[in-house]
Structure formats: C-alpha cells, structure tokens
C-alpha cells in the first residue's frame, strides 16, 4: 500500500479498465489468422466494433460506426472460439454466454448485456504499473494468445484458464483444462494476453512473436519486460461466462465432460484468443494516463475519462453474417469440422 501511495505522488498513472462488451457476431470469420477466408476453420464469438470482417486492415478506430463495448471510442475486436455441448447422441449445440455480474450495470439501463465478454486493460496488476509508463497499442496492432494445436498440459500457458463456477461470482479456482464435473453456474474461460512489445511490429507471422508474456496467472503482478520486448503495453484479458444451465440434465452417462471448443477440442488445452486493436485516436492512451479504476473510468450512468453508451445501444450494434450456415440449434457436426472429430484446427 505504501508503494501505491508513492506512485500516486510521483504522478505515475495506473488506470485499470474493466468493462462489458455484448456479442457483435458469431460466425466463421478470422481476419487475424485466416484473413480473406470465408468461412474460416471454426466458429468464433466476437465482441467490439462493427468494422469486423474477413479482411479488416489499417486504423480500425476510424472504420467502425458502432461498438458493442461500453466505451464508445473502442472499435477493437476481441474474440475466442465458440463453446459447444456435445450430446451423447452425437449432436452439438452452442453454449450461450452471459454477462459478468461484477459489471453491475443494472439500474443504469433496463436491458442486460447480451452475451459477450468482460474485457480488462490493466498494468502490472490492478493497482500499479511499477515504474513503467504504459504505452497504448498503435493503429493496426493485432495479436493472438494460445494455440488450437496444444493438446496437453505441458503446452498450456499461464493465464489461459477455466473456472468452474459454483456461483456467478466464483473466482480464483482455475484449471488449464475444461472442468471435469458439472459446474452449477457455468464455465468461465479466461485469456490473459502478453503485454511486452518489441516496439516495432504491429503483427508478426505467428501473430505472437512481436509480443512477450510476463503473465504469471490470475491477475498477479507481472514480471519485468525483457530487452527484446522492452515496451510495456496494457495487460489485456478476457473473461467469457458460458451458461451451461440448459445442459445440466444431459451430462453423459459415462461421466465424460461434454463441452468442446468449436475446433473440436474437448480437453481445453488449445484455448486461444485474438485481439485486434481499434481504439479511436488517442482515447486508450488518455485512459491509461489516468488513475481511474473499473467503473471509475466510466460506465453506463457514471461519468469518467472515457465516453460511455447505454446497454441498449451496446446490444443494438451488430455485424451481418457473411457466412451462410447454422451455428445455432442442434447440429450434426461442428461447423467446418467434418467427421470424425479432429483435435486440431
Ligand atoms: C472489409 O471492410 C473493408 C473496409 O470497409 C472493405 O474495404 C473490405 O472490402 C471488407 N472486406 C470484406 C471481405 O467484406
Ligand atoms: C440429440 O438430443 C437432442 C436433445 O434431446 C435432440 O434435440 C437431437 O435431435 C438429438 N440428436 C440426434 C441425432 O438424435
Ligand atoms: C509433460 O511433461 C512431463 C515432464 O516433463 C512428462 O513426464 C509428461 O509425459 C508430459 N506429458 C505429455 C502429455 O506430454
Ligand atoms: C442461463 O440459462 C438459463 C436457461 O438455460 C436461463 O434460465 C438463465 O437465465 C441463464 N442465466 C443467465 C445468468 O443468463
Ligand atoms: C500520456 O502521458 C504522456 C507522458 O506524460 C504524454 O506524453 C502523452 O501526451 C499523454 N497522452 C495522452 C493522450 O494524454
């Protein structure tokens, strides 16, 4: 706590953003890993700006006209694979998402956030950035974390985890693979991105090597950035709440865990996520330079350094599907995955 006060006095900022974004699209597109492929290999659930399409490039902050995020200057896109339930009879159904109760936007608007994710931009931890200035991502910046080809615990990375939700507020109990037992309030998927940048490249051939991860798991304080990747960027993290309630009476009789990512991963070690920066102008840097935290940075009904919109306006923003196929209802196979099941994408 003493260190925290010292940093404040020294004028070093330590903003921590946590905000909700409703679903903007669910379809097989991946402008980052498979640009131009319509459809991409597997189904994604996407939040953020409506400039999302198969080939998006350049300064996304100048391209969107609406966003499903609380902050109206954030046209970034954030996405992960979609989660499906595999019935004993071989059929699949997409698991719906629900909003994080900790966002607490109720009262500010009469409609709840539709699906989506909780997005974080923090520093070394919630309360400090150590002695380093936090540099916002430049226009065109993109990255991924994790890999759909990882199929065992040795390949899993800190910060890519699952929480078996006993209640909507369960936190801290994390596993690198899908929970093996039914989870009363659903499954939370957690993705922490790397936060050290090489200072030069907005992307790299594997979409990862321009960044270096100092993530230790959870929201624990990160280690220092190495000389190869010296620029401290915000620590981006996603939390996705998957509502498994509809499947609670369909757990397989053989006891096997029935949830599967859209790229046919039933273990869960291949969990991965994509980030495409799209904050307008210097809005993200403006927020990072501040000392606000969570709702204090602005939320529906509460003024802050960032401009906000109502939940109804978030939910109203959407992207048209360019891939004509069913991703909903009971499906005979996972879209794009064929049969029999494959482990990798
Ligand atoms: C994606 O959007 C950009 C900018 O509006 C446009 O130039 C491009 O043609 C779009 N690509 C697809 C595949 O629709
Ligand atoms: C599997 O079970 C679900 C839920 O009862 C049902 O809707 C679906 O049609 C079944 N699929 C097959 C192939 O029987
Ligand atoms: C993981 O690593 C441990 C220790 O090196 C090894 O014993 C084990 O076989 C590895 N597991 C897999 C699935 O590769
Ligand atoms: C989860 O899904 C069930 C229906 O399957 C629904 O009744 C419930 O309201 C959902 N929970 C949340 C928090 O959205
Ligand atoms: C953020 O702070 C840095 C260092 O004090 C300053 O140079 C920059 O102009 C600030 N940017 C914004 C958008 O406030």
Q: What keywords describe this structure?
A:
mainly beta, 7-stranded antiparallel sheet, disordered C terminus, binds 2-acetamido-2-deoxy-beta-D-glucopyranose
Strand content: 15-25%
- Note the overall shape: globular
How many distinct beta strands?
Answer: 18
DSSP helix fraction: under 10%
The oligomerization state is single chain
Mean of residue pLDDT values: 90
C-alpha-based Rg, rounded: 19 Å
* Largest β sheet strand count, sense and barrel closure: 7 strands, antiparallel
| Distance between the amino and carboxyl termini | 46 Å
Total of helices: 3
Structural class: mainly beta
Number of domains: 1
> In terms of per-residue confidence, which ranges show pLDDT below 50 for 5 or more consecutive residues?
1-11, 340-345
User: What order do the SSEs take from the amino end to the carboxyl end, as H and E?
Assistant: HEEEEEEEEEEEEEEEEEEHH
Attached small molecules: 2-acetamido-2-deoxy-beta-D-glucopyranose
């Amino acid at each position: 706590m003493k260190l925290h006060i010292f940093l404040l006095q020294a004028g070093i900022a330590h903003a921590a953003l946590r905000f909700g974004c409703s679903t903007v699209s669910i379809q097989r597109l991946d402008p980052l890993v498979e640009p131009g492929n319509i459809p991409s290999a597997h189904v994604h659930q996407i939040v953020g700006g409506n400039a999302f399409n198969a080939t998006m490039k350049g300064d996304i902050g100048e391209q969107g006209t609406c966003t499903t995020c609380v902050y109206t200057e954030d046209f970034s896109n954030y996405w992960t694979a979609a989660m499906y339930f595999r019935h004993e009879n071989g059929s699949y159904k997409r698991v719906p998402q629900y909003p994080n109760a900790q966002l607490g936007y109720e009262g500010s608007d009469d409609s709840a956030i539709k699906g989506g994710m909780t997005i974080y931009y923090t520093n070394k931890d919630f309360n400090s950035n150590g002695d380093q200035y936090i540099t916002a991502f430049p226009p065109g910046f993109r990255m991924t974390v994790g890999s759909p080809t990882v199929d065992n615990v040795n390949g899993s990375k800190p910060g890519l985890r699952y929480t078996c939700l006993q209640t909507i507020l369960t936190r801290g109990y994390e596993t690198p693979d899908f929970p093996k037992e039914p989870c009363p309030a659903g499954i939370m998927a957690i993705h922490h991105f790397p936060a050290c940048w090489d200072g030069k490249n907005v992307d790299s051939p594997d979409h990862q090597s321009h960044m270096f991860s100092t993530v230790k798991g959870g929201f624990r304080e990160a280690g220092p950035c190495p000389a190869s990747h010296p620029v401290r960027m915000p620590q981006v993290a996603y939390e996705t709440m998957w509502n498994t309630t509809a499947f609670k009476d369909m757990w397989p009789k053989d006891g096997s865990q029935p949830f599967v990512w859209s790229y046919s991963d039933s273990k869960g070690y291949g969990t991965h996520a994509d980030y495409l920066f799209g904050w307008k102008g210097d809005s993200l840097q403006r927020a990072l330079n501040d000392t606000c935290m969570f709702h204090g940075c602005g939320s529906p009904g509460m003024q802050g350094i960032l401009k906000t919109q109502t939940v109804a306006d978030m939910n109203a923003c959407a992207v048209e599907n360019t891939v004509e196929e069913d991703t909903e209802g009971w499906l005979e196979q996972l879209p794009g995955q064929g049969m029999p099941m494959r482990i990798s994408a």
